[in-house]
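Give me structure tokens for this 234-residue protein.
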Amino acid sequence: MSRSVLITGGSRGIGLATARALRAAGDRVAVTHRGGEAPAGLLGVRCDVTDAEQVDAAFRKVEEEQGPVEVLVACAGVAHDKLLMRMTEEDFTSVLDTNLTGVYRVAKRATRGMLRARSGRIVVISSAVGLRGEAGQANYAASKAGLVGFARSLARELGSRGITVNVVAPGLTETAMSEALTDEQREALLRQIPLGRLARPEEVAATVAFVASPEAAYITGAVVPVDGGAGMGH
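Here you go.
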């Protein structure tokens, strides 16, 4: 059955791979983007998740074009990596506003229709860094760790209405963010990964697609790592 799907940050990287996976499965998929054009075959909606009015406008457009959102994948995120002594308050709060408060904004808006339908899927994209920490990423790790508590609280609030809320925690993935690493940084990170390589966006997308599927109807409040073993034990 074709469902109405919205993926924030779905115009590139893990979000785009997820959008393509869900579209291939027959869903109607919209993606948010802040600039440029949406990828071919997907409904593009301009939206900055730090702006509540833009979030509401994006949902209204999706509802008009493909119906109430039945599956929300919260993937929009930013990173401003710095050691704590060099990190400004703006560096810290801007990352939390996008990565954590942004998810609050879109999840709150999505639940309107899901509560009426008494069904829905919310998948939050966190990070292995949010579970194990990383030097120079205190702001990013704090935002991604906060998503775990947020999602599990929602899972308890919304479970009786047939709405599942789960977290997917990717490790280092072949995206624009990883391309910015130096060779030395990449090698140091690879040594921490038992499988010895980066994840492909499609591998993360396959996990997201599963927890958003009808087959995962009895999974909620879960944190699913896709990190090659880097964060095992956390």
